[in-house]
Amino acid sequence: MTDQTVDTDTLVGSIRASIEIQHKRGKLSTARKLIYCLQKVEKYLDGSELPLADINKEWIDGFADWMIRREELSENTKATYLRLIYTVCRTAAANGAAVDTSAFDTEEMSNSESTRTLLTIHDIQQLMAAKLDCQPVLERARDLWLFSFLCGGVSMTDMMKATPEMLEQGVLSTADGNVMVTDAARSIAISHFCGKEYAFHSESRPLDDAEIKTRTARLNSLLEIIAEKARIEKPVTIDSTRSTWLNIARIKGDRVNDPASDRLLFNNLLQEVAALVDQNRRYWFAMRCLRCPIEDMSEKISSEFPSTRVFIAESDSYESTATGVKRVHSSVIRDILFFNTTLSQAELIKRRFRETAYTYDYRSGTSRRLAIIPDAEMKMFMYINHITSREIAWFFPEETKTPEIQKGCGVVITDGEWKGARGTYLGPSPRFPLHIIVSVVLENLNIGVSAHIPHHFVRLV
Fold it and tell me: In 3D, which of 456, 434, 374 has the Cα closest to residue 143?
């Protein structure tokens, strides 16, 4: 029941009543849009009341022109607010109010964005195939776009609220209700886990609106770079994921309004896109060799699956021989190797070598899933295994001030080949005065390593 103080014979009162209804229905995203629309209407009316019966084409055109010229809103935002007002008026007319809905121009209420500017399956193929020169920041931006798309077009706000528990359970809580998280989306998310509390950022608290707005702007600028590399002459933004999904469904001849309600169609479409993702998206996995040396297993995997990259944690030592000093490679972890490939290829490797090796997985419900190692963790793990005290050849200023970082805090490498890798600060190095000790733990495998790193190359996360 609408609040008795709300005058539903006026435009402002009708919008307020509609906001209350949307809140009760749990349509929080629509309610937010109506609130923003109401703010513009009240500002334009400047304290005066507008009966529904007085809404005509002249008022609508004046309001539309004011939004563009005075408020500097985009054409799409203007069209969205006019559609909301039209819907409010149409609902009021259905309830017996005297309002002329024919005064609204359908062209004015249409987004300037045509289907020519919306992404297709072919565009997504180009997006996935784009060579990003191993730039983690671009790879992460592309993955965030894909995650949003694979979840039916969830917003940046909803993604920043996602927790590892939600993703593991396969259900993402959004402003418009619960959304199913597909296996392809879950795999992408796991490879980018940033913190214990939230999946896509490392803060221990929810991000506020200003922080999300800043991150969204940054993400869109990166997506613009990716679109250029992929030769996509259409705007690629995080806000385009939902319209892209709807456009692809429309091209396929399917009538669809909401991914949450058209579940069968949604799943069929996602199978197509998930196949594209699997052809291009590679993840890190771990294998424990039970009945053969890891060097032999590495050769077998490289021979039978040539597109798969294999990494063995090694250290170098030097032995004196009759002819001089000899450099000797030895495995740090004698029975575990890591490999980088697609999900489908990893399943094939698991089945191919199940008699002689165990590929790490975990139970999820009634089935088992391969354990994906987050990219940042693996990068740091490889970094620490790559540098020995003999191999460090970095130049840095002769400063003695160490960073003001508490033990146990998360840190990130800021320079060098492994820029972007993350770990945990353990304390100053007792051997090297300008170094600190950083560790990384592969959570799924219970494996941890540490290394001495110049403090100038480290900052607090």
Answer: 374
Alpha-carbon distance 188 to 321, whole Å? 49
Cα separation of 271 and 273, whole Å?
6
- Closest-CA residue to 356 (of 305, 447, 293, 308): 293
Distance CA 192, CA 283 (A): 10
From first CA to last CA, the distance across the chain in angstroms is 49
pLDDT, tens digit only, all 461 positions of the chain: 344 455 678 899 999 999 988 888 777 778 888 998 999 999 999 888 888 888 888 898 899 889 888 888 877 788 888 889 988 888 888 888 888 888 787 666 665 544 456 777 778 878 887 887 667 788 888 888 988 888 878 888 888 888 888 887 888 887 767 877 877 788 888 776 655 678 788 777 888 888 988 898 899 889 989 988 888 878 888 888 877 776 666 555 444 444 444 455 555 666 666 666 666 778 889 888 887 888 899 999 999 999 899 988 766 556 667 776 666 555 566 788 899 998 888 989 999 998 888 888 877 667 778 888 877 778 777 776 665 434 433 333 344 445 567 777 888 877 655 677 777 877 777 665 556 677 666 666 666 667 767 666 777 77
Angle at 361 between CA 358 and CA 362, to 5 degrees: 135
Question: Do the bridges between strand 435-442 and strand 447-454 make them parallel or antiparallel, or are there none, so unpaired?
Answer: antiparallel
Angstrom CA distances, 50 to 2, 7, 11, 132, 429, stand at 19, 11, 6, 54, 72
72 phi-psi bin (left φ>0, alpha ψ -120 to 50, beta other): left
Contact call for residues 146 and 226 (beta carbons, < 8 A): no
By C-alpha distance, which of 288, 105, 294, 127 is closest to 223? 127
- Residue 156 φ/ψ, nearest 5 degrees: -60, -40
Distance of CA 415 to the CA centre of its chain: 24
Q: Are 138 and 225 contacting, i.e. CB atoms less than 8 angstroms apart?
A: yes
pTM above 0.70, yes or no: no
